[in-house]
Specification:
alpha/beta; two-stranded parallel ribbon; D-Maltodextrin-Binding Protein, domain 2; 10 helices; nine-stranded mixed β-sheet
């Protein structure tokens, strides 16, 4: 009887452990590579404070994050742009009702190789470069070197903002070299003295040189006061109003005393 009792007790403990494991939170986050550093910083801090919560994070672009939200393969979609109308329609057809949460601000900064003497560029010049009209840096006061144009792929929220604010919805010319992430753009520019690219401010490193736009430096101050011309909010979307662990995590992210300090640590602009 004693052995049988021990066996029953062992079974109960195993079942309780399994139930606890099943109830332990698992949050999946997918989407924007721009928001990725924020998600990583905030998640690391959140999991330290909540050891029962496990958060998995992957990039792939804002468009891929939205697709994952719609098909039910993520709890949170990171996005560096607002959801598109066609994405809303697809979501509603699948009875998914995306809810946006602004989590930070960002500015998109044009970058060149550190050896490039350029310090400022205008919005009109950026548009002409990305349309393929300006082919040599000397045309805009730079060195006598060809311009190598680095851009993002069309699934990128950063590309969407660039397409709208800089290109005025004109297409980037076919000769541009497309990269899949902010990090890839930064690396491509760092390796090519003739290159120009654009990255979120959180990806800025000493390996690339930021340019002023219309004589305005891209910074937290110019982003918040609206003077920098290529700035934007960053979002986390949930499939309906969040509940449980996801709600607690979102509240942590937007809390000025909690998650927002990690936004600043990631190199982005806090909401407050």
């Amino acid at each position: 009887m004693k052995i049988k009792g021990i066996a029953v007790l062992t079974f109960l403990v195993t079942v309780l452990f399994a139930v606890h494991s099943a109830l332990a939170g698992n949050i999946v986050i997918k989407g924007s590579t721009t928001v990725l550093p924020i998600a990583q910083k905030v998640s690391e801090a959140y999991m330290k404070q909540n050891p029962d919560i496990k958060i998995s994070i992957s990039g792939g672009g804002s468009g891929n994050g939205m697709k994952a939200l719609i098909d039910g393969s993520t709890d949170i979609a990171d996005s560096s742009r607002f959801i598109k109308g066609k994405e809303v329609s697809l979501a509603v057809k699948k009875k998914v009702y995306p809810v946006p949460f602004a989590v930070a601000y960002d500015c998109i900064v044009p970058v060149v190789h550190p050896t490039n003497p350029m310090v400022n560029i205008t919005m009109a010049q950026l548009k002409d470069i990305y349309m393929g009209k300006i082919k040599n840096w000397k045309e805009i006061g730079g060195p006598d070197r060809p311009v190598v144009v680095i851009s993002r792929d069309t699934s990128s929220g950063t590309y969407e903002v660039w397409h709208k604010k800089v290109m005025k919805k004109k297409r980037v010319f076919p000769g541009a070299l497309l990269q899949a992430s902010n990090g890839a753009v930064s690396q491509a520019v760092a390796k090519n003295k003739n290159a120009v690219g654009y990255i979120g401010i959180g990806y800025m490193t000493k390996d690339v040189k930021p340019l002023m736009v219309n004589r305005i430096v891209g910074s937290a101050a110019t982003t918040l006061n609206g003077t920098y011309p290529i700035s934007r909010p960053l979002f986390m979307f949930t499939p309906g109003w969040p509940k449980g662990d996801v709600l607690n995590f979102i509240n942590f992210v937007i809390n000025p005393e909690k998650g927002q300090k990690y936004v600043a640590e990631a190199g982005y602009v806090p909401l407050y």
